[in-house]
Amino acid sequence: xxxPPAVLLFLALAAAPALAQEDEPDAIGAVLINGQHPAAQAxxxxxxxxxxxxxxxxxxxxxAAAPPPPASAPRLEQTGVSPDGPASYSDLSFENRIRQxxxxxxxxxxxxxxxWTLYDGADHPLYVFMFVDPAGGRGALEAAWRDPRRARGGxxxxxxxxxxxxxxxxxxxxxxxxxxxxxxxxxxxxxxxAWDGQMTEAGTALKVSLRRN
Length: 213
Known about the structure:
Layout: H1 5-23, H2 27-34, H3 38-41, H4 89-107, E1 114-119, E2 125-132, E3 142-146, E4 157-159, E5 162-166, E6 169-174, E7 183-189, E8 195-201, E9 204-212
Antiparallel strand pairs: 1-2, 1-9, 2-3, 3-4, 5-6, 6-7, 7-8, 8-9
């Protein structure tokens, strides 16, 4: 009859101590054959030699030299000072050429060149203008407009149809949307750099001010 699994497990557990005992060394047999216990045959470890203790009073340890103070880094407000040392002649020459190029580019632009915003009396933005103003009569004055009150979609921007600039007088005229009457703006230059005047749109006149962004 086949033995149940529980019996086989019991027999395996019972045989494990017996197998372990067969693998253990026979200490009594070693004593009878060699006349010495196996543990006594091992050579005891040699203790390490004791360190030499110098005689006399202890000598004072030399004091460590204090590290030199760190060099102060150049501050942001300092000019002509670089974290990597003074600039070389080639670096200074390159920087001067960049400054000259920027100055030359600005010299080719007129007083109106750039982005401006037209505000009403309550300082609400009405139109944003981008002027192209070549200096010295090198080209015609041009401008484009955008209405920030309308969502982006193509009908919120256009080109200024009539643009006249003479001294302190500036006139703009454009059609804000298809089928609408033209919007006319007459401005006079101020000492502050702004342009103040009046805008007529859809039959309504408003006091406006044009200021650079």
